[in-house]
Amino acid sequence: MKTIVLYTSSTGSTERYAKDIANKIGGDVLPLKKFKWKNASDYDCFVFGGWVLNGKIQGLDDFLCHYEELNDAKKHILIFSSGLSFPSPEGRKDLINRNILDLYHVRYYQLRGSFDINKLNWRYKLAMKLMIKKVTGDPNSSLDQVAMYSSFLTTPIDYFDYEKVEKIVTVINKLSLEPIDVEVK
Ligand SMILES: Cc1cc2nc3c(=O)[nH]c(=O)nc-3n(C[C@H](O)[C@H](O)[C@H](O)COP(=O)(O)O)c2cc1C
């Protein structure tokens, strides 16, 4: 089974996940924007990973534009997101709702990425600084929240999730063992 991992990434953590998964399954890997959809028939399995910006998985809409074509051609589709929120059933459900993922027949994994304010472009840096200011200035924020958001200004964090990568790799390997439909005449 031939697999390609496509991704969007602003500071590199989703790219790292994508490359790690591709490396472990012996698949190809490309930024979503560089993939030529005329080559889609070369692959049996598509993995898409996108970073999360204000609850939206970046690039997901562009990837899912091709859902019908992939689904009709019986391709396997796995999606993962890379954000800072702690993965939880509620958080996963929220991301599914916000990204209208339940309209599609796909496997979805919520991964935790990394954060380094110095790697952000000026727009995202500004957005993040405003968010930090809002949380730290809000009297309803807990001490933990204030401490966590304040630390974002100074300390890079990396939550690379080795277990989830293994899980995704195992699923892809299992899918590759599924019998391929052969038309009997
Ligand atoms: C402006 C901004 C908004 C963000 N919004 C969210 C969010 O809503 N939920 C979340 O889990 N992470 C959020 N993040 C964190 C990123 O998704 C996280 O750092 C991710 O791992 C970055 O991936 P990348 O290194 O591939 O760009 C946000 C980051 C920035 C800069």
Folded structure, characterized:
41% of the residues lie in helices and 21% in strands. It has 185 residues and is an alpha/beta fold. The protein has two domains: 3-114 and 158-177, Rossmann fold (3-Layer(aba) Sandwich), CATH 3.40.50.360; 117-155. A hairpin with a 2-residue loop joins strand 3 and strand 4 (56-57). Helix 1 (13-25) runs parallel beside helix 7 (162-177) and helix 5 (122-137) packs antiparallel against helix 6 (143-152). The longest helix has 16 residues, at 122-137. It is elongated, with a radius of gyration of 18 Å. The model has no long low-confidence stretch (mean pLDDT 94). The site of flavin mononucleotide has 23 residues, from helix 1, strand 3, strand 5, strand 7 and helix 5.
Low-confidence runs (pLDDT<50, min 5 residues)? none
CATH architecture of the largest domain: 3-Layer(aba) Sandwich
What is the radius of gyration?
A: 18 Å
Can you give the mean pLDDT?
94
Number of strands: 8
Q: What share of residues are in beta strands? A: 15-25%
- The CATH class name of the largest domain reads Alpha Beta
Q: Write the element-wise H/E pattern from the N-terminal end onward.
A: EHEEEHHEHEEHHEH
